[in-house]
Amino acid sequence: MNWEKLLSLELYHFLFVFARLGGAFLFMPFYASVYIPSRIRLIFALALAVMLTPVLSGQLPPPPENVPELFRFLLIEITVGLFLGLFPFFLMTAIDLVGVNASMATSFSNATLFDPQTNVQSTVLTGFLTLCSLLLIVSTDLYQILLSSVLASYNVFPVGKNLLTGDMMQALAKALSAAFTYGFQISSPFIIMIILLYSSMGVMSRLMPQLNIIFIVMPLQVYLGLALMMVSLSVILWWFMDFLRNMLLHFAL
Questions:
Q1: What's the predicted TM-score (pTM) here?
Q2: pLDDT tens, 158-197?
Q3: DSSP-assigned states of every residue in 105-159
Q4: pLDDT tens digits along 116-128
Q5: Mean model confidence pLDDT for the chain
Q6: Within 13 Å and on the Cβ side, how many CA atoms surround 123?
Q7: Is 45:18 a contact under the CB 8 Å cutoff?
Q8: How far apart are CA 84 and CA 248, in angstroms?
Q9: Given a cut of 50, is residue 222 above it in pLDDT?
Q10: CA quadruple 31, 36, 38, 43: dihedral positive or negative?
């Protein structure tokens, strides 16, 4: 047996698997979490690539004939990995939208902080809901479905084959559209509360112009918004996790 040839073949296969995993872990929820140190994430990706290389060796092509072909293969694998990570990342937009609407309902829109998950300023409630979603992804073993989507992708995107760019862009667009639609549906109680509260403010200001409505309604809005958040938090997270699981199951199979 030519051990040198076998070793070089396994090295190429390892590079292909690690390129796809590394691209996916750049954006995939939980795996791309900044709460996990970058060195730990890198070690985990390397160890996972080592374990998956023998399993996926039957679906991987032989070594490329030249260096440009090798770089083309790696670029394709990284692109596929980025697509696999961006798909669930776009689905997380739904819970971000719920946080924005909840912040408007509780008058916490100006209470912003730096969100290390997205590297942008976000409201306190948005960060809270995002962190709760990440904890549920771990506790409900949804991270395993995320990983299985990477394994199932080798049936749809074989290594070295031309990318289905049109289908990939369409899938990302549908994921973002579904996330926005479902985000508005989940946060509908807060939207209804805002409409009813502001409509009542308008009626009261017309009936009693001498009354300072703002000083009366603002504390009431905070209390009602927080009470609604406390009552509906479990249902919001349950609906979102059900939406995320259904979308990922269709994507992973």
A1: 0.85
A2: 887 788 888 889 989 999 999 999 999 998 889 888 888 8
A3: HTT-TT-EEEETTTTEEEEHHHHHHHHHHHHHHHHTTHHHHHHHHHHHHHHHS-T
A4: 555 566 778 888 8
A5: 82
A6: 19
A7: yes
A8: 10
A9: yes
A10: negative
CA–CA dist 21, 16 (Å, integer): 9
User: Distance between CA 200 and CA 181 in Å, rounded?
Assistant: 27
Domain ranges, ordered by start, for the chain: 3-252
Range 237-247 burial, b when 16+ CB lie within 10 A, else e? bebbbebbeeb
Nearest-angstrom CA–CA distance, 178 and 173: 9
Six-digit token string for 154: 């080798």
In total, the chain counts a number of residues equal to 253
Instruction: Specify the amino acid at residue 127.
Output: G
Distance in angstroms (rounded) separating the CA atoms of residues 204 and 146: 51
CA atoms within 13 A on the CB side of 206: 5
pLDDT for position 209? 75
Closest C-alpha to 163, from 72, 68, 57: 72
Q: Positive or negative, the Cα torsion across 73, 79, 80, 85? A: positive
Nearest to 49 by CA among 68, 84, 24, 32: 24
